[in-house]
Amino acid sequence: AQTVTQSQPEMSVQEAETVTLSCTYDTSENNYYLFWYKQPPSRQMILVIRQEAYKQQNATENRFSVNFQKAAKSFSLKISDSQLGDTAMYFCAFMAQTQGGSEKLVFGKGTKLTVNP
Amino acid sequence: EPEVTQTPSHQVTQMGQEVILRCVPISNHLYFYWYRQILGQKVEFLVSFYNNEISEKSEIFDDQFSVERPDGSNFTLKIRSTKLEDSAMYFCASGVGYQPQHFGDGTRLSIL
Questions:
Q1: pLDDT tens, residue by residue, B5-14
Q2: Contacts with A74 (C-beta within 8 Å, 6 or more apart), sequence order
Q3: Which of A58, A95, A114, B88 is a plausible cystine mate for A12, CB 3.0–4.6 Å?
């Protein structure tokens, strides 16, 4: 079974600064996907960024980028130029790639990020 | 942009009563999911559904839970006899194979 660990329950950052959220995972699968989801106080689940395990290049999406280290099973999220609207719970998630195509997401416990003015 | 729609946004039910949570997935999606998030905890997988049958279910998804896709658009989660510990946020999600799953805004279920 896969597990996802987020070791930072809470973090804070000053507006306009950079912050990195950590995520590690455990799996015996070789092919999989990793995601970061954002959950603001409204409790919606919003996809931030996605990484395919077979790609060596780290994914980027505007101010959001990841540092994917497959051998270390590490998948951290870097938020640059933090904005007040980035305040939210951030969940790291894993999805195995199998022939079925309907694999579930396995989530970490989340990191609560607060951006301070 | 197409959205996953969930109704109601908040449901309050007496313990022991049946509750049905409704979802309208994105129209061209083939895979459907229910997740649960107890307040302050992580999001947990309940069940996945494909081709009109359950693909996978978790230990949480016991006999009191059932899912159905009664027509071409709706996807429902039924809890037959609710318990206090069923109080949670329930998220519906849909997807197309290995593309990211799109989540609805959730239904907050409160059991009294």
A1: 999 999 999 9
A2: A22, A23, A24, A67, A68
A3: A114
- Calpha distance B71→B67 (Å, rounded): 12
User: Could you read off the pLDDT of B19-43 as tens digits, one per residue?
Assistant: 999 999 998 898 999 999 998 888 9
Distance from CA of A42 to the nearest CA of B (A): 8
How many Å lie between the alpha carbon of B44 and the closest alpha carbon of chain A?
7
At residue A47's C-alpha, the angle toward residues A45 and A52, to 5°, is: 140
What are the tokens at B81?
A: 């006899």
Q: Which residues of A touch B50 (CB under 8 A)?
A: 100-102
A43/B101 CB distance under 8 A? no
Residue length of chain B: 112
Residue pLDDT, tens place only, B43-53: 999 999 988 89
Query: A95 to chain B: which residues are within 8 Å by CB?
Result: 98
